[in-house]
Amino acid sequence: MKQGDQKKVLTDVLLPVYNEEHILEKSVNRLREFLSAECKHLNWIISIGDNASTDKTLEVARKLEKQFSNVRVFHLPRKGRGRMVKYAWTRSEADVLSYMDIDLSTDLKAFPPMIQAIIDGYDIAIGSRQYKGADVDRSLRREIISRGYIWVLKLLLRFPFTDAQCGFKAISKQAVSELFSHIKDDEWFFDTELLHIAHQEGYKVKEIPVRWIEDRDSRVKIMRTAWLDILGVLRMIGYRRGSLK
User: Distance between CA atoms of 87 and 116, rounded to whole angstroms?
Assistant: First the structure.
């Protein structure tokens, strides 16, 4: 993707959600204001991806879709962040696909450089809470689990990145079309699997240091997620470069 074509780039910002009626409208409005003010060089659309919510999340999402021409809604009857990201990104017409957590825990100032990395030729760009320059506010428990997980990835998979699961990522449409049919996980390990396969296959990945504040009302079940991640890591140990062919 050439930098000179920047004004023509359409960027899709996906917000995967599950039972987020209390924060959805506020976060979408905040994101729209930021994109309108700070991303005037881009064409953009916000996609709300509802994963089987049992509250009024889908109702709020449909209301926002009717209110704003640059907001649309995807709905799946099953949970799973990876499932929604794969579903929405493979159906998007955008040149650059991105997603972020609905709580906007990651400072939005990191969004323009993340998208610019894809425009400049990187295949994937990720927000990192441990890369040099990052600023993180989270509990000691979350810090220990996060650093421990990266240590496991480096030990067992020779993972070269400093973060795997920060909910703040972007990817080129071409990389989506080439990689996604090979990613098996539909939940939280999706991010790690994507990055591991991309690295093994020689795709260019850019890490962006971010300011990140933990959401104390997070719906993530940390211990269950950590266990599923370990199972995913064990599955990926056998992956070798060239497996896509």
Answer: 24
The pLDDT tens digits of the residues spanning 69-90 come to 999 999 999 999 999 999 999 9
| pLDDT tens, position by position, 149-182 | 999 999 999 999 999 999 999 999 999 999 999 9
Token pair 């209110």 is at which residue?
67
pLDDT of res. 8: 73
Residue in the structure block whose two tokens are 């991105």: 98
Separation in Å, CA 117 to CA 112, 133, 156, 203: 9, 17, 28, 13
**pTM recorded for the entire structure:** 0.92
Give the Cβ contact number of residue 76 at 10 Å: 16
Cα gap 63→127, rounded to integer Å: 30
Measured CA angle at 190 (ends 213, 58), to 5 deg: 70
- Cβ atoms within 10 Å, residue 31: 20
Maximal CA-CA distance, the chain: 49
**CA gap 237, 200 in Å, rounded:** 11
Distance CA 94, CA 89 (A): 9
Coil, strand or helix at 55: coil
The Cα–Cα gap between 28 and 47 comes to 10
- pLDDT tens sequence across 122-156: 999 999 999 999 999 988 888 888 899 999 999 99
Give the Cα-Cα-Cα angle 238, 127, 100 (nearest 5 degrees).
100
Is residue 131 helix, strand or coil? coil
Mind listing the domains of the chain with CATH numbers? Answer: 3-236 (3.90.550.10)
